[in-house]
């Protein structure tokens, strides 16, 4: 079995390639971007994985359901509430149903299984934790706001002084996720944001120690090419955590827990010349990691499956 630690928009391309190429994969999904909105529980990363694997994702945006309409939001807007989070009408069915199941006492693990079954997916998508915790940005005046608010409502327009995982101390990795990690022959870190997609998973209490023990089978795929984020606010968030927003910062961040790191071929010269000697224990590998179409997604997945 291969287990992939994944976020949403930055991770789905590799997850989709791996799902096509491998019989037996499991996803451990980030949950720290989950939030309550209009009384509904929204789990963007879990949904991106489910929509992405079932061919329902709006691939251009990287989130939401393809060919969705936004009538609910238009009507909501006429009544006054803020409508900065674009919930589509089809997408809404997931949030309504999930919230109902939560209120009936089901766990997020059970609910996610319900949706993967409904969407006809033959893999386990395991939420990293059943306990709600969330990525919060610390902005001016030591104020904390949710990641979705920062990035979507405020369009990332103000300085971020820190990023914290609010309530993470109470979170535990689910038994299912822990067992999956132990039993996998390979653990892959998708090229998601290290701070807000993969970071919240590896910082669940107890998780780092578990991953250190499993280090030999951990492979990280870089979210950076030529020291720049492939997509999204990776560099802003790395800076906010006092991590150099470049290849060295990324390697440092994962060096305790990942034995192998896959970078783009474009970065081979820089890593071999300037970085490799500082990290003798890490196995650096190079491939074409920019997945701009489905063929490139499967090609990277094949490279990973045949080499690790
Ligand atoms: N991202 C945006 O940039 N703008 C949106 O309005 C937006 C709505 C949205 C609705 C459902 C969903 O599952 C995801 C959505 N996203 C939106 C993406 C999401 O906010 C982030 O990309 C992830 O949380 C980070 O992984």
UniProtKB/TrEMBL annotation:
GO molecular function: LPPG:FO 2-phospho-L-lactate transferase activity; magnesium ion binding
Biological source species: Candidatus Nitrosocosmicus oleophilus
Enzyme nomenclature, EC number: 2.7.8.28
Top-tier EC class: transferase
PANTHER family assigned to the protein according to its UniProt record, in alphabetical order: 2-PHOSPHO-L-LACTATE TRANSFERASE
Gene from which this protein is expressed: cofD
Residue runs in coiled coils: none
Superkingdom assignment: Archaea
Transmembrane segments: none
Protein name: 2-phospho-L-lactate transferase
Keywords assigned by UniProt, alphabetized: Magnesium, Transferase
Gene3D superfamilies: CofD-like domain, CofD-like domains
Pfam families: CofD
């Amino acid at each position: 079995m291969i287990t992939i630690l994944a976020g949403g928009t930055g991770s789905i391309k590799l997850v989709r390639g791996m799902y096509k190429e491998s019989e037996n994969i499991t996803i451990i999904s980030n949950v720290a971007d989950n939030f309550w909105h209009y009384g509904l529980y929204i789990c963007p990363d879990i949904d991106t994985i489910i929509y992405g694997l079932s061919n329902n994702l709006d691939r251009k945006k990287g989130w939401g359901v393809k060919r969705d309409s936004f009538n609910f939001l238009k009507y909501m807007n006429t009544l006054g509430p803020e409508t900065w989070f674009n919930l589509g009408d089809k997408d809404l069915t997931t949030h309504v149903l999930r919230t109902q199941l939560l209120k009936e006492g089901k766990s997020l693990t059970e609910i996610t299984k319900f949706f993967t079954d409904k969407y006809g997916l033959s893999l386990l998508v395991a939420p990293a934790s059943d306990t709600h915790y969330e990525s919060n940005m610390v902005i001016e005046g030591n104020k904390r706001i949710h990641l979705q608010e920062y990035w979507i409502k405020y369009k990332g327009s103000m300085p971020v002084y820190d990023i914290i995982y609010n309530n993470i101390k109470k979170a535990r990795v689910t038994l299912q996720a822990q067992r999956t990690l132990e039993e996998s022959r390979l653990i892959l870190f998708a090229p998601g944001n290290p701070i807000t997609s993969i970071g919240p998973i590896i910082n669940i209490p107890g998780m780092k120690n578990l991953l250190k023990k499993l280090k030999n089978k951990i492979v990280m795929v870089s979210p950076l090419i030529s020291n720049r984020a492939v997509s999204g606010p990776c560099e802003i968030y790395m800076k906010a955590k006092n991590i150099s927003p470049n290849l060295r910062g990324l390697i440092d961040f994962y060096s305790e827990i990942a034995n192998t790191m896959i970078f783009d071929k474009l970065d081979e010269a820089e890593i071999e010349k300037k970085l490799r000697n500082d990290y003798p224990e890490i196995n650096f590998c190079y491939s074409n990691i920019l997945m701009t179409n489905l063929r490139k997604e499967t090609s990277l997945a094949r490279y990973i499956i045949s080499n690790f």
